[in-house]
Hints:
Elements: H1 2-17, H2 28-34, H3 36-42, H4 49-62, H5 71-84, E1 95-102, E2 105-112, H6 114-123, E3 127-136, E4 140-144, E5 150-154, E6 163-172, E7 177-183, H7 184-194, H8 204-207, H9 209-221, H10 229-236
Antiparallel strand pairs: 1-2, 3-6, 4-5, 6-7
Amino acid sequence: MADVKQALEQRAAAGRNQPVRLTRNMTIVDMVKALEPEIRRALPTVLTPERFTRMALSAINNTPELANCTPMSFIAALMNAAQLGLEPNTPLGQAYLIPYKNKGVLECQFQLGYKGLIDLAYRSGQIQVIQAQTVREFDYFEYQYGLDSKLVHRPGTGDRGEITFIYGLFKLNNGGYGFEVSNKEDMDAFASRYSKSFGSRYSPWTENYEDMAKKTVIKRALKYAPVSADFQKALSMDETIKTELSVDMSEIRNECLPDSGDREPEADRREPDAV
Length: 275
């Protein structure tokens, strides 16, 4: 009897370890059902597979081209959003699932939105103030870096003109602070060079240029801020493509080609100032 029981247990374990085959003709509901054991292990406790399915259907309804992405990259990108507690592809602008060609294959990339980044920053418990703003032609704007750094922005009234600068700033609970400024031309050059989805009709840069520019300067400002490891891991998930599931999606290797948008120029980095 013991031998029979052991054989059955080994057979069940072997079945669980067999890779799940996903096909393009499977519905989202079918995919989630096929992957349910993995999804249950990877989902945060506040989300059920049923809620995950509704998020998936909502994302595809808002961005139909996602249905043509490789199934596993779509499920993994959605899992990134789920583990971070962010709703993708909604007017909230918290996160985006972006379809684009990677290594010649249409895959799904996960991108943080500006509002999602702000939400994660406040959730870390270390940030007192964090925000980004756009400066326009007829605003008063003055800044300087160094030991006597300062940032002054007085928005104009009425027609303020075109965007000229974007800046992001933060203040920590311990009084430390930092900021980053970019002019419009440099931001456009950055987006064109380092965001692989830039120019795509599905790119958030197309529909939400200001928010994506704000996210970029905030990430630069936070580059050397003494934030928690969990917050840094959340930032590392931005602009990634993954094809596996894990209880910690930040540990899964990014499948994006090099220079696809998850890397920033190393020049002109500054430590946060302290008061």
